[in-house]
Each structure stands twice: as C-alpha cells, then as structure tokens.
C-alpha cells in the first residue's frame, strides 16, 4: 500500500513538473506567436464570442493524451486576439456524449430567459457525440446540446432540456453555428448534415424548427461537410452586402486532405442561394488551415476568422511530444467584387502589428543570408523581367534543410515546397509542393509572410491568395535568402520584422 501511495505522489509531482514545462512554450517546434494549448490534444476552434472587451476561444480538447479522444471544450481568452490566457476546461463529456464542435453568442435580449441580474447570458450550442450509439452502428448518435454562462464565460451550465435538436437519422449531424438573423427576427443555426447544411430557426434558443437546406449538389463533396459558418459581409466598396457560407471538408482539399470552401450569395432566414454554386472556392490553399469559423459579436462589425492549423491526414502523427496542434493567426475577412464574381480575402488582424520589434530593410539581390527565427516578411517582386520564371524565398538551416515559398510564372501560381524542410517521415502525405492560383493581374507580386517555429502563413496580393503550411526542421531555420531558377530574383523591395513571443 505504501508503495502504491508513493508511486501516486511521484506521479502527481511528475505531472505538475511536465505541466510547468509545457506551459513555458519553449519545446521544439512549439509556436511562439500562435495560440496553442499548454499540453495534449487540440483541434477545431469552437464557441468564439466577444463579450465585454474579451475574445473567448473554446476548442476541441482531450486533456489526457496527445491524440484525439473524448472531446471537451478547452478555453482561452484574450483582450487583443494575440496574447492568450489559458483557462479551465469549460465543458466536459457527460451521459449524453462527448462535446463536439459548436458556437456561442451573447443573448442580448435574453431570448433564452437565462439572464440573472444585469449580466447578459452567453449561450453556446454544440454537438453531443454518443460513442455507445456509434459503436452499435446507429445513425442517430449525434445531436445538438445547449449550455449557458451567466458570469461572462467563466463557468457554464448545461441546459436541462438537452438535446435541443434531435437527430433525424443522419450519421454526420454536427457543428452548429449560431447567429441572430435581423431580417426574420430569429436565431438561426447552420448545421452540417451529411452532404449538405441545414438551417434551423428559433425564437428562444431552446425550441428549434428546420427551415431550409443547402448544398446537396453544390461545391466540393470529396469529403463529409463539417464546421459551417454563415454571416453577412459588405463588399470592399461598401455598396453591397452578401452572405458568406463557409463549409469545411475532411478530405479533397486542393492540396490534399482537409480544407475549407466558401460560397457567396443571399440568405432570407430560411434559404441560402449561391451566386456561383458550381464554382468551388477555398479560403486557404495550404494544407494546414481547417475547421475555421468567425467570432460572434466582434466590435466594429469586424469579421475575424480563426482556423485549426493542421490536417487530418497527419494531425495525430506530427513530431511534437507534449502537445499537438495550434491555431492560425486571427484573420480579418473582406469581400471583393470583380467581373469573375465575389471573392473572399483574408489578412492578418491589425493587432499583429503589436508583435513587431526591430525592422530591417532587406535586399536579396546579393543573395545575402539574413537571420530568421520569428519573423514577418513583406516582399515585392517585379514581373517585368521575363527571365524570372520561378522565384521566391528560401528558409534554410546549417544542415541544408529548406522550405521554399515562391511563384511559378508559367502556371501563374504560388507554392510552398516543404519536400526538403526536415522531418517528413511521420506521414507519406507530408513531403510535397503545394500550389495555389494567383488571383491578381498586377505586375507586382506581393508576399506577406508570417514565419513561426513550425509554420508559415502566406498572404499574397493583399490577401487574395492565402496559404498555410506546417514544417518540422531538425534544427530551426535560421536564415532566409532569395532564389530564382532563371535570371536574378526580381525583388523590388522588402522589410523584415523580428516578432516577439506571446508567451512568457
């Protein structure tokens, strides 16, 4: 007995020690200015809501392992979208099932009746996943639940009347995104239902009625539809407002595996009509931005997006020890109109400017190597030189591992090549060159890059083309240089900013 007690004490001390190490955010490959949980497994962002000066981020979380397991809602908060405070787990599995993805809102009019005193309730909807029902081969093992908070998100109580939406017999029936629709004066849930989305309406957030469907024959169906998001967005000139529908697909993205497509169109509170249903558009062409949704109730009508920075092809095998996964940089979405239709653009939120330390003007014409660790790069290349058919920049280290980010003139496409970027043996899908179409016709190539310890995010031509990719070098990339496969790399000008870590 004494031996067992001693082992238990030692195990507890070891757990505390490991938690201290993982919470320091200094492990190999650990991102320094992206959000990641202190330890163990994380995937989809959930319940993102702004309340009383604070951005809340919930996320799919398994606190007992670095691989997927019984899902909880982890919780973090931020006043500026950049610096995050880790908080206690918000929602735990119960007798109805695991806690899968969902969303949250501020119930400003107290539609739910949950308000006590002067504090407006936060209301979250989420998917219950009944693992016993799944193992029995049933099709109705996913259904929707509700929880609420009356202390600004610090603690949560599940609704006694759960589930609020029963499963009609659809195997994949999940990921409710909740919005207030002013036109109809009702709450709307957009829900992934197999190969389509369904819309449900409610006046009180408790009783829901199916009111419409979309997508059975529209968009990409190479994978099951997941994690929808529906919101209005004004065009850049302010003359029009269109509805945007995001839908993630687990497989079949442009460069393999997981990705997120989007539609633009009209929504009347019941029916969504796409203005280009046969055209498949992607919010990010890299392989490592999935299940992203936007914050509810953001100030100044900002539409701010965050994605899970990984891919189901290899998410559970990546070479990190005590933690797995991170989130993308928060991105502000915009909408452009052109003769080709409506196009969603994404750029880093303005708050990232606060990460900048020293600025250095860069001139890669001499192919001089520049130190690089945590950096933001803004580069302009000219397309006037016809000799430069394939050019870009290369991150590298002392053992000749390299990551290339470039532009191919013949294909008129951007690419990220991580074929020789370090450890790729954990997945046969990982080592590859990923491509994305260039959607601008300007004579200048504009590259805006955020480089963290194990990720690069490319925002090209003002956010018209976006790519996110992970990489795992044996040693950190410590230098950057320009390259060109023919002629001289046609760099016009550039700036490099050293960035500070968001973790102490």
Quick summary of this structure?
Helices cover 5% and strands 45% of the residues.
**Largest beta-sheet details:** 6 strands, antiparallel
H/I helix tally: 2
| Fraction of residues in helix | under 10%
Output the strand order for the largest sheet: 23-34-25-30-31-32
Rg (CA only): 23 Å
Alpha-beta content class:
mainly beta
The unreliable regions are 1-22
As a percent range, the share of strand residues is over 45%
* Alpha carbon gap, first and last residue: 41 Å
The residue-averaged pLDDT reads 92
Overall morphology: globular
What's the count of strands?
34
Q: Any overview of this molecule?
A:
The protein is mainly beta. It is built from two helices and 34 strands. The protein has helices at residues 2-23, 131-135, and strands at residues 40-51, 54-62, 72-78, 85-91, 98-106, 122-129, 142-149, 157-158, 173-181, 186-193, 196-202, 209-214, 225-234, 241-249, 259-267, 272-274, 281-282, 290-294, 304-308, 323-324, 331-338, 341-348, 356-361, 370-371, 375-382, 390-396, 402-408, 413-417, 433-437, 444-452, 455-460, 465-470, 479-484, 491-499. A six-stranded antiparallel β-sheet has the order 23-34-25-30-31-32, with no helix packed on it. The chain is globular, with a radius of gyration of 23 Å. Mean pLDDT is 92; it is low at 1-22.
């Amino acid at each position: 007995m004494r031996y067992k007690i001693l082992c238990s004490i030692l195990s507890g001390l070891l757990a505390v020690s490991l938690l201290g190490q993982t919470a320091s955010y200094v492990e190999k490959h650990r991102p320094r200015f992206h959000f990641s949980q202190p330890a163990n497994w994380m995937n989809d962002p959930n319940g993102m809501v702004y309340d009383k000066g604070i951005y809340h981020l919930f996320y799919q979380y398994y606190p007992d392992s670095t691989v997927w397991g019984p899902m909880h809602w982890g919780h973090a908060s931020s006043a500026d979208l950049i610096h995050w405070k880790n908080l206690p787990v918000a929602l735990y599995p119960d007798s109805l099932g695991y806690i899968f993805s969902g969303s949250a809102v501020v119930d400003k009019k107290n539609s739910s009746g949950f308000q006590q005193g002067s504090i407006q309730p936060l209301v979250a909807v989420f998917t219950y996943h009944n693992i016993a029902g799944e193992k029995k081969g049933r099709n109705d093992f996913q259904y929707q639940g509700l929880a609420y908070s009356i202390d600004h998100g610090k603690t949560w109580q599940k609704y006694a009347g759960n589930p609020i939406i029963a499963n009609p017999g659809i195997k994949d029936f999940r990921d409710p995104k909740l919005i207030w629709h002013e036109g109809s004066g009702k709450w709307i849930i957009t829900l992934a239902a197999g190969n389509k989305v369904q819309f449900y309406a409610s006046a009180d957030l408790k009783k829901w009625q199916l009111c419409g469907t979309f997508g059975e024959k529209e968009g990409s169906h190479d994978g099951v539809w997941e994690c929808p998001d529906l919101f209005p967005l004004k065009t850049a000139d302010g003359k029009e407002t269109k509805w945007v529908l995001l839908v993630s697909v687990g497989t079949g993205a442009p460069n393999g595996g997981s990705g997120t497509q989007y539609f633009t169109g009209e929504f009347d509170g019941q029916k969504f009509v796409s203005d280009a249903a046969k055209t498949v558009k992607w919010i990010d062409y890299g392989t490592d931005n999935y299940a992203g949704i936007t914050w509810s109730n953001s100030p100044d009508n900002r539409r701010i997006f965050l994605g899970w920075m990984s891919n189901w092809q290899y998410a559970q095998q990546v070479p990190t020890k005590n933690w797995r996964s991170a989130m993308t940089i928060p991105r502000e979405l915009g909408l452009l109109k052109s003769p080709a239709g409506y196009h969603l653009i994404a750029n880093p939120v303005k708050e990232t400017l606060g990460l900048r330390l020293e600025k250095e003007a860069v001139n890669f014409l001499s192919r001089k190597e520049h130190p690089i660790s945590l950096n933001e790069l803004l580069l302009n290349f000219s397309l006037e030189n016809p000799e430069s058919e394939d050019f870009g920049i290369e991150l590298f280290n002392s053992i000749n591992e390299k990551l290339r980010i470039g532009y191919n003139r013949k294909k008129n496409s951007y690419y990220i090549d991580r074929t020789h970027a370090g450890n790729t043996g954990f997945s046969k899908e990982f080592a590859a060159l990923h491509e994305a179409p260039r959607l601008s016709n300007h004579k200048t190539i504009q590259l805006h890059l955020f480089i963290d310890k194990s990720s690069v995010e490319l925002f090209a031509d003002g956010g018209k083309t976006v790519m996110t990719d992970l990489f795992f070098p044996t040693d950190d990339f410590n230098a950057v240089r320009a390259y060109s496969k023919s002629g001289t790399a046609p760099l016009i000008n550039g700036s490099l900013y050293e960035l500070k870590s968001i973790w102490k």
